[in-house]
Amino acid sequence: MAAVYIEGKIFAILMAHLTGFTSYPIVYPNTVYPIAGMPREATFFVVSHTPNSPVGFSIDPMDEYQFRGVLGISVMTPLQNGGQDPQDVAGALARHYTAAVLRDDPVVLRVVARPHVVGGYIDGSHWRTPVVIMYETIAAPNESIG
Cis omega before residue 106 (within 30°)? Predict the structure, then answer.
């Protein structure tokens, strides 16, 4: 189902850009991974999304608002991974989002700062290397855009 309002459209645009980058499985918010009966891939991405409060440009609630937020994507790799360095995978992901201007009419979303790779840490049987991506767009929040 396509997003109808700006909040869903923002997330859909960010995820479309991610799926264009990777063939690794992507674990979206509010999902279980792996699906029951399926194996867990050695390397996968975990997504978190934190929208900030919209900021209005006028006192009219129907006017445009600035929507900003943070997209977090964690690169999950096995502990003591003998394969590709998780910092390299995370760095490539950060470069993929650097200075990105993402469009899906009528929404234009831009990454406002160079995404950064955060120090990794142990998370169960995996090493988690987070990438933090800050974005913004301007839109009228009460209009259907689907």
Answer: yes
